[in-house]
Amino acid sequence: MKNILSAFIFFVFVATNLYSYESEDQLEVVVIGKVSKFVKWERDRKSSFIITVLDNDYGDLFDKTYKGKKIQNRPIELKYINSIEELKFTHVLYIGHSNSSKLQKIMKKIKNKNILVISKIRGFAQKGGVIQIAFVSRKPKLTVNITTAKSNKLKVSSSLLKISEIVKDK
């Protein structure tokens, strides 16, 4: 019941605050943190919650959004990388739209790692990403690849799955 209530609060927060955000980019950055609250990692002994951004397309938007904030009762630590080879331990890897041509190489490098991989690249979830964020009529739409989530040893809350489109790898 608590998970359903949390998902409802998440949905109401996003729907009612949609127009308080200046852009879809800003809302997308917020959604990354919100969905992270509905995921559990198998190996998670870090004192901070780490979000890594590959090829930051958003300037200081991540810093402004997450400064002084917490996810899962831990302070958020942001890391920015320009190449997948620079990736160290992270809870969340956000892959910016500018990486769509390198997506296959990136996904191969992080396959079966304990990482929540999120992007707004079209078809991302079908191509092996965990969560794809899209916008329909200025409202966020989530697509979750549950096969990839399981292979990455992530437990996605049923509450999040109920408000998402589900895809499975074959």
Number of domains: 1
Shape-level CATH architecture: 3-Layer(aba) Sandwich
Overall geometric form: globular
Average of pLDDT: 87
Write down the CATH class.
Alpha Beta
For the biggest sheet, the summary is:
8 strands, mixed
Rg, nearest Å:
15 Å
Q: Label the structural class.
A: alpha/beta
Strand order of the largest sheet: 3-4-2-5-6-7-8-10
Helical coverage, percent range? 25-40%
Overview features:
single chain, 170 residues, alpha/beta, Rossmann fold, two-stranded antiparallel sheet, 32% helix
Overview of this structure, please?
The protein has helices at about 1-15, 25-35, 60-65, 105-110, 145-150, 160; strands spanning about 40, 50-55, 70, 75-80, 90-95, 115-120, 130-135, 140-145, 155, 165. With about 170 residues, it is α/β, with parallel strands linked by helices. Strands 3-4-2-5-6-7-8-10 form an 8-stranded mixed beta sheet. Strands 1-9 form a two-stranded antiparallel ribbon. The longest helix has 16 residues, at about 1-15.
How is this structure best summarized?
The chain has 6 helices and 10 strands. It has 170 residues and is an alpha/beta fold. It has one domain: Rossmann fold, CATH 3.40.50.
List the helices and strands and how they pair.
Elements: H1 2-17, H2 24-36, E1 39-41, E2 49-54, H3 61-66, E3 70-71, E4 74-81, E5 92-95, H4 103-110, E6 116-119, E7 131-136, E8 139-145, H5 146-151, E9 154-156, H6 158-162, E10 165-167
Parallel strand pairs: 2-4, 2-5, 5-6, 6-7, 8-10
Antiparallel strand pairs: 1-9, 3-4, 7-8
